[in-house]
Amino acid sequence: MGAVKRILLVFLLLYGGALSAQAGQGSGFFEALYDVPVMDGLEELKDQAVLFDKPDGKIASVVAASKSLSAPQIEAFYAKTLPQMGWRKTNNNQYIRADEQLAMDISVQKTLTIVQFTLSPRH
């Protein structure tokens, strides 16, 4: 095997390993809610996302699902995490920050826990 092929093979192995490590670390943040983290164990259903930019603020909705997490686990994670990002809890699964409000609606459908996050202007 030539030197160039060996270098290419090493690069592909290292790059593939880096991608695998990133995949195991969670998704980061929701695409339409760029500052709301995706909890490990939740999978964003990207085809369910809705985003509108209006003069009085952004309206966005994202949906995520999990086969392994319960509603109380999800609620506890976001109750701990969202205040670190400037959100203040006002009610059960309701948060506000500046001129925005964020609501979480959690339901269980068969073997899935479904979470819908809705961001809207605060009135």
Summed over residues and divided by their number, the pLDDT gives a mean of 82
Shape: globular
Please report which band the strand proportion falls in: under 5%, 5-15%, 15-25%, 25-35%, 35-45% or over 45%: 35-45%
Low-confidence stretches: 2-25
Tally of structural domains: 1
Gap between N and C termini = 67 Å
SS-derived structural category: alpha+beta
Number of strands: 7
Helical stretch tally: 2
Please bin the fraction of helical residues.
25-40%
Radius of gyration: 19 Å
Q: Main beta sheet: strand number and arrangement?
A: 7 strands, antiparallel
Query: In sequence order, what are the helices and strands, one letter per element?
Result: HEEEHEEEE
What does this structure look like?
By secondary structure, the chain is α+β, with helices and mostly antiparallel strands. It has one domain (28-121). 27% of the residues lie in helices and 37% in strands. The protein is built from 2 helices and 7 strands; from the N terminus they run H-E-E-E-H-E-E-E-E. The chain has helices at residues 3-24, 71-81, and strands at residues 43-44, 50-54, 57-66, 88-91, 94-97, 100-109, 112-121. Strands 1, 2, 3, 4, 5, 6 and 7 form a 7-stranded antiparallel β-sheet that branches. The termini are far apart. The relative contact order is 0.16. Mean pLDDT is 82; it is low at 2-25.
Task: Summarize this entry quickly.
The protein is built from two helices and seven strands; from the N terminus they run H-E-E-E-H-E-E-E-E. By secondary structure, the protein is α+β, with helices and mostly antiparallel strands.
